[in-house]
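Renewal narrative, Specific Aim 1. Our central claim is that a sequence can be written position by position from structural information alone. The example that follows is taken directly from our test logs and has not been curated for this report. It begins with the structure tokens describing the chain, in the order in which they were read.
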């Protein structure tokens, strides 16, 4: 989902006109044709157990007679830890040469599932049927804590010049697995208006983190990179289920382009801040808060080139995904990177073994079930990686996608 910053931001920073076009008719049903070249790629995974889960699969078809490229997203099931993905259900199709869709997938473990980025599709029967939901902005992140589902949308005016669109984040909450949604008015009062770049997809930037049902953290990407890659960014915190929000400052200690936040059970809060990427390297810092984001302590700081306080392995590649599994075990990865693991709460990092070297390598999803067992999805060649020793070592295999019998392609 993320590549290095000089090109990758095109994957998740999209002009609002293009995104709004997606909402106004670019979603299409392709004609059945022959001779098209189709690639099938894992886009996102979500597991309920180490063996059972779901996967979003993107089929990208190019007609031999034109430059038309059509993408279709399917959601399938796995019962063997991702070795095979089967029972693919066709969720949506779009002209992927014109509109970006990032195929983020999450479930609540009770049959309610969400495929989003920037539109929203929902299932309430375990993935057998999907429907497009009406949303008023670009869906940036959906997070489930049981049946409590929260969503962050980005609302941007299309009346202003594209160089400075007025944008605001909105929080929507659902207590019934996403069947109905209510706007969080208190969040709007706390944040106020923002003006900045039109961020539409939350691929390399945490937007919403929910350590528990009542605690939530929102990091606004509208604040990133302004002015001149600031060394801190505002965050908005609720500890009462969204009834009220407090504005706090996440101090990164480096010039920051975006931030990922993760909270293990029982805390503390962790964040990895990332600066501008260059030639396969990206300055990063690891920070921690033990008082719900009021103050932050820097654990590791990496510039380009790395300095004394840098654990060099985390400086390689571009940050995309971060999981604080426990207060000691932290796992990070991204494009042009292996999986980096810290066993001492973010102070030092080592690169995982058994990771194929590739220009586009890295993990796009990481999910741990306990302090030992975890699974990651690679950003290339449909690789799945599994650890049973807390990230010290990983085994890998290629997932087999059992395609539908009738394949839709552009005519």
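The sequence written for that structure reads:
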């Amino acid at each position: 989902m993320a590549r290095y910053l000089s090109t990758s931001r095109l994957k998740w920073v999209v002009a609002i006109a293009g995104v709004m076009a997606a909402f106004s008719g670019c979603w299409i049903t392709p004609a059945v044709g022959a001779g098209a070249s189709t690639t099938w790629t894992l886009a996102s995974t979500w597991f309920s157990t180490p063996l059972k889960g779901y996967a979003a699969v993107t089929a990208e078809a190019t007609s031999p007679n034109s430059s038309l490229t059509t993408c279709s997203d399917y959601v399938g099931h796995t019962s063997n830890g991702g070795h095979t993905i089967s029972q693919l259900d066709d969720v949506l199709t779009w002209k992927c040469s014109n509109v970006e869709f990032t195929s983020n997938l999450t479930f609540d473990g009770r049959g309610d599932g969400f495929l989003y980025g920037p539109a929203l599709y929902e299932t309430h029967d375990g993935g057998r049927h999907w429907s497009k939901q009406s949303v008023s902005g670009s869906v940036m992140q959906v997070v489930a804590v049981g049946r409590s589902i929260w969503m962050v949308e980005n609302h941007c005016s299309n009346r202003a010049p594209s160089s400075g669109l007025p944008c605001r984040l909105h929080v929507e909450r659902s207590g019934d697995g996403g069947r109905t949604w209510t706007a969080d008015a208190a969040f709007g009062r706390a944040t106020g208006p923002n003006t900045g770049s039109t961020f539409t997809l939350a691929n390399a930037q945490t937007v919403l983190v929910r350590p528990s049902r009542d605690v939530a953290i929102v990091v606004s990407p509208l604040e990133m990179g302004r002015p001149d890659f600031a060394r801190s960014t505002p965050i908005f915190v609720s500890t009462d289920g969204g009834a009220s929000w407090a504005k706090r400052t996440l101090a990164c200690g480096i010039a920051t382009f975006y931030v990922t936040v993760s909270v293990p059970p029982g805390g503390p809060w962790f964040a990895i801040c990332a600066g501008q990427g260059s030639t396969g390297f990206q300055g990063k810092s690891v920070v921690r808060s033990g008082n719900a984001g009021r103050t932050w302590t820097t654990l590791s700081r990496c510039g380009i080139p790395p300095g004394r306080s840098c654990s060099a392995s985390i400086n390689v590649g571009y940050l995309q995904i971060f999981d604080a599994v426990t207060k000691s075990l932290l796992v990070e990865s991204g494009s042009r990177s292996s999986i980096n693991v810290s066993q001492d709460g973010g102070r030092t990092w080592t690169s995982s073994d058994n990771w194929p070297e590739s220009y586009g390598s890295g993990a796009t999803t990481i999910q741990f079930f306990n302090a030992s067992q975890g699974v990651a999805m690679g950003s290339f060649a449909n690789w799945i990686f599994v650890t049973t020793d807390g990230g010290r070592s990983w085994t890998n295999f290629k997932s087999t996608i059992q395609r539908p019998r009738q394949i839709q392609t552009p005519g």
